Amino acid sequence: MKALITGATGFVGAAVARAVAATGADVRVLVRQDSELGNLEGLTVEHVHGDLRNPDSLHHALAGCQQLYHVAAHYALWARDPSIFYDINVTGTRLLLETARDTGIQRIVYTSTIGAIGLPEGGGPGTEQTPVSLAQMAGDYKRSKYLAEQEVMTLARAGLPVVIVNPSAPVGERDIKPTPTGRLIVDFMKGRMPAYIETGMNLIDVDDVAVGHVRAMERGRIGERYILGNKNLMLREIFEMLSRLTGVPAPTIKLPRLAILPLAYLNKWLADYVTHQPPRIPLEGVKMAKYKMHYDCSKAVRELGLPQPPIEVALEKAVRWFQTHGYA
Fold it and tell me: Is 123 a domain residue?
């Protein structure tokens, strides 16, 4: 069995590549000519060069494969040119999956995001069935991933053998960029968190996200969505766990979100028109802080056997990796 994995040089994709390789499958990874390959160190995989926006390269990458894990996405809370989110996440996804259909791929797992899952208006954890709309998506990343998921569902209804997974906030090793959640951990470790805005998050070990992908390929129902998450926590609880792991004091000052919102708008304006660098206070992150982003992961646990170990283990792995690699 040969599997193509997109996004394998990234945080989640590298974990998926390792998990798929561990099953004994032949792994092929789609990478750009300028991709940083450090996250694939030690893995025996076949590299093919291509781009989600280049149909010819996709035909070449998919040739001879029976499985496809589409993990790649442009993941950020800001971009100088927002069109990149839609070019890669929406158009690129449609091109790849249409090419997979035309080349006879037997089974596909598409990596969406927890941000495309709705949250109940009256509170409580969101599920795969909680209604949500484009108007509820904050920022270009979430809007693009919502639109991409709609494209995937349309293809699934037309017969494409695709299963959708929606990871929550993964933590663990090889968070090279790092991701927004990883950046939160690094900033905490550096003592850059004197205060915080309270919000809710669902954390999961990135290695368990990878297991969820493999199980979705093996057991997932075509056209279904599966939330890949573990522990619902408040941000204060996460900082308390990190404090126990690192010895860094947890912040005790809780700031009102509305007091930070004007600073976030100012940061975005400076990023857009002056510095052309990602803002230190991401506007979309502040907007989302008003939601308690807690989710019910029982469907993936029940149908896929998604592991649910203590989340402290994943946080410890993340802290150790960031320390070892000079992030903090």
Answer: yes
